[in-house]
Amino acid sequence: MEPLTLEGQVNRQIEKGCISTKKEIEAYLKTTSYYLINHNYEKYLFHDGKLAFFTVQDYKWLEETNEKISKEVLLLVLRCERIIRNKIADEYSYYCKDNGYAYFTINSFIVDVFDYPNTSTDEDRNAVKTAFIDECWTVYAKKKKNLDAKYHFSTIESVPPFVIAHYLTFGQIRTFFKLLNKDIKERIVNSFDLKISEFNNVVEKLNYLRNACAHGEFILDFDTLKGKKISNSKFHPYIYNPHFILNKNKVSLFATIAHCSYLLQDNITFFKSIMRNILEIAHYNKKGSVNVNSLLLSLGLSSDCKTVQSTFK
After folding, report:
1. Whole-angstrom Cα distance, residue 278 to residue 2?
2. 71 near 78, Cβ under 8 Å?
3. What is the spatial distance between Cα 83 and Cα 128, in angstroms, rounded to a whole number?
4. I need a surface site. Which of 9, 98, 218, 288 has the fewest CB within 10 A?
């Protein structure tokens, strides 16, 4: 598809219903991606299949709101990520020490049949483990010069997990967990009152959301397929709050970040504070002409935002 000229982009916005002046639209498009607008924002500008009139200010409002909410969500997910990586590293360190294993060796990992095809051969499974060990060393080697001078490791086998885990991405941490012995996995997930399958589900969704926030993607319409329902009822007031379960087959932005409550059991006040901040941004950051209810519904909330806010007091 041939990209439109700036004039063509301006005319396209007018055709869609933008009632701002051509000069205003042109000025906005010089700093904002035309494709970002059309693929992400336009869903807020149509109601029941009918074209709605809107202004450039609506785009600015959605863009600013998305950025503000992304920052708050990222704070929450990063806190959970740190808890996850530290817990995995600690439990793996204890396991290696108790079983006389050198760190990050093939013998200290296990390819779980629940995570990989059970038709895999020993060679296939060892290849998976070796690839991950090599990847860890590559990541660590790039950052090695930033470590305290007391660390002088020549091979990955001698690097303690709590050191290497600091440099792994969230996605690599997920792989790390999948390669752990089932006993270690159970110790980790039990500390969060979860099952292994539930923990995998939570981490997968948070990893996806973390990447979207970190790379400036549009998250106001974030949703993901509903995974295994978490059985523990302790934090149901957050995850299964009826005010943000509008689609039984999908998990909205609010339901997704509510999963963080499992990982922040010792600091649940931080979770509540972030949730209140996000709700305030969603409800009061009104600068455009688009009905704010459209935004609340896309987040997975009922239009009665104050009722949801009371959940996090």
Report:
1. 38
2. no
3. 25
4. 98
Distance CA 228, CA 195 (A): 10
| Confidence category of residue 80, pLDDT binned at 50, 70, 90 | very high
CA–CA distance, 287 with 58 (Å, rounded to integer): 7
End-to-end CA distance of the chain: 50
Please check whether residue 55 is in contact with residue 289, taking contact to mean a CB–CB distance below 8 angstroms. yes
Per-residue model confidence (pLDDT) at position 69: 93
- Check if the beta carbon of residue 88 is closer than 8 Å to that of residue 180: yes
N residues, the chain = 313
Who's near 97: CB < 8 A, 6+ residues apart?
none
Q: Domain limits of the chain?
A: 85-190
Give the pLDDT confidence of 258-296 residue by residue, as tens digits. Answer: 889 889 988 889 998 998 898 888 877 665 566 677 777
C-alpha Rg value of the chain to the nearest Å: 23
156 and 129 Cβ atoms separated by less than 8 Å: no
Name the nearest CA neighbour of 219 among 111, 67, 82. 67
* Beta strand pairing call for 50-51 and 250-252: unpaired
Helix ranges (H only) for the chain are 6-16, 22-29, 34-36, 56-99, 122-143, 161-164, 170-178, 182-190, 196-214, 236-239, 253-258, 260-263, 268-284, 292-298, 305-309
Distance CA 34, CA 28 (A): 9
